[in-house]
Amino acid sequence: MGLPEQPVTLTAEQVAELNKLLSTMRHDINGDLALIVAAAELIKLNPDITTRMLATLLEQPSKIRDKADKFSHAFEKALGITKG
């Protein structure tokens, strides 16, 4: 990973934007995790819906990964971090 060789300065606007992205990511991931918990609880109460709820359960990890990747990309771009 290529880190900047000089100190990085962010404007107040850049910090605000990163904070907004972080807040959105946390909110969205908490929602995805709530869906996992809800699906598991529904399966526990009614095992007959397992097949239907499995789709919901299996969708959440990739959603969470995509949201984390989106924030990571913005964070790395703002700090001048390159891959490789």
Itemize the secondary structure elements and their pairings:
Layout: H1 12-45, H2 50-79
Descriptive notes:
The chain is mainly alpha-helical. The protein has one domain (12-79). It is built from 2 helices and no strands. Helix 1 runs antiparallel to helix 2. The chain is elongated, with a radius of gyration of 18 Å. The model has no long low-confidence stretch (mean pLDDT 95).
Computed over alpha carbons, the radius of gyration is 18 Å
Task: Look at the structure and give the mean pLDDT.
Answer: 95
For the record, the count of structural domains works out to 1
> Which stretches of 5+ consecutive residues score pLDDT under 50?
none
Roughly how much helix do the residues carry, as a percent range?
A: over 70%
Structural category is mainly alpha
Given the C-alpha coordinates, what overall shape results?
A: elongated
Number of helices, counting only DSSP H or I runs of 4 residues or more? 2
Rounded to the nearest angstrom, the distance between the terminal CA atoms is: 5 Å
Main sheet specs: none
Q: How many E strands?
A: 0
Provide a brief overview of the structure.
The protein has 84 residues and is mostly helical. The protein has helices at residues 12-45, 50-79. α1 (12-45) runs antiparallel to α2 (50-79).
Give the key terms.
mainly alpha, single chain, 84 residues, 76% helix, 0% strand, 2 helices, elongated
